[in-house]
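REQUEST FORM: STRUCTURE PREDICTION
Request ID: SP-0412
Submitted by: Lab K.M.
Chain count: 1
Length (residues): 521
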Amino acid sequence: MLKRLIRAWILRAASGRPSRPSSRGFGGPAAPRDLAAAPSDALASIRQAFKHAEDLVCQPILAGGVACTLVYFQTIVDEKTLLEHLIRPLQDQAGAADPRELLDGLLQGGLVSVQASRCRDADQAVSAILEGQAALLIDGGRQGICLFPITKYSSRAVVESQHETVIVGPQEAFVENIKTNLSLVRHKLKHPDFKVEKQTFGRFTKTDTYLIYIEGLCNADVLREMKQKLAAIDPSSVLGASYIAERIQGPPITPFPRIQYSERPDTLVSSLMEGRIGLMVDGTPQTLIVPVTFFSLMQSAEDYYQNYLASTWIRWIRLFFVVMSFLVPSVYVAVTTFHPEIVPANLLQTITAARENIPFPALAEVLIMELIFEGLREAGIRIPRPLGQTVSIIGAIVIGQATVEAGIVSAPTVIVVSVTGIASFVIPHFELGLAFRLLRFPLLILGGLLGMAGLVTGLFILFWHLVSLSSFGVPYMHPVAPLSLRDWKDTFIRINWSRMKPRPEAYRDEEAAERLPSGHE
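STATUS: Completed
RESULT:
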């Protein structure tokens, strides 16, 4: 029996017939259909590919006596441009033209004002039509197919940033249209060394991305690693920047972001000027920026539009409240549970009196209130915007007062959790804030079970984890670990612009910097 099966398989392979039916969906790419080999099948192949597409239009056109067919999706092409700059000029062609002359005239741009490109492959034509281009089949496809990029982009207008707000400085923000976003960057960065490389990701979505950098300023090793990581991924769909970001971050697993998200053109341009690299993704207003450090995520765009003394003071306030956002609940629980002797007597008496009739230990109190606060914060985001902020504020006040009056939690616990929640909003970047919100709970449990010893151990592990991280070869805690005093001028302080000439050592290419002319840095 086995011999007969092997003999049948060998005969089938020799005859050229496949042993199983091929699949175009998930079984691998099908062989391209060459129009020159089967010209009469060009329109039929396109119709077959879109046989259940109701918005497909196959419009016959007579151009100078040559029978043509214009194929496009009505919903994603600019119909005004299609009619005025393509259909009417083709129909106005006088005399009996030769199909070859018509094709040459379209490719040379002498017949219509829309730039044309030629394709000889039916699969390429199908992909182009899906992207919003119009395909013109000349003489039924016997002379090839011309493609016309007349895609219609429906996007919102450029508005002010919703998540990276500033009082002083530019107010514009990126939108979902990648071409609009690139124009916002080009208006600010007018230099021939500004490079834009296009790549497409997603086997189904075909999402366009732009890898942008300034040649001569960005680190060549970082750029090479970025291109290698992008070339190694093959997602089935890309609907947002995070689809790519999570694939190129690599190990180790960490809650801390190693890629910066930004929706501000000025933030992106300033990052490029530092020697960093950006990745714009079509369909999302967020742009990816690499590499990144912990302290760059602690900076706000407004730091560079205010007085440098005020910006320095605000940075100190920001760092202080970041520490409070994940450390205050743990210290409160550890001190009240294991180390009451370090609390002043009057304060300890007040806390003890407030907790006298509370049925839960301090750890359970804080955990209950932290979970309630996280739920209110998430509800405020999901509720419609006009009601979200009101519901969050009123909900926190009402629930906090009710829990204290009911004797479930004490008033000091409500104060601690409220201060912690407010401090977490000081963090400029949302992804970094999420990391500290997550780490707050394990530190809280360590402080509640082991006291200050457990808390110190947790902080030591946290710092060890931070110094072991890197973003595209750049140490995450630079310029603290490794120490670089030269870069402190824009870390804990923000010095005057006249003294901030050298670019950060973490990002720049030393070899490229040596080749730059004097004053170019």
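NOTES: Residues 8-39, 513-521 have pLDDT under 50 and may be disordered.
Reviewed by: T.R.
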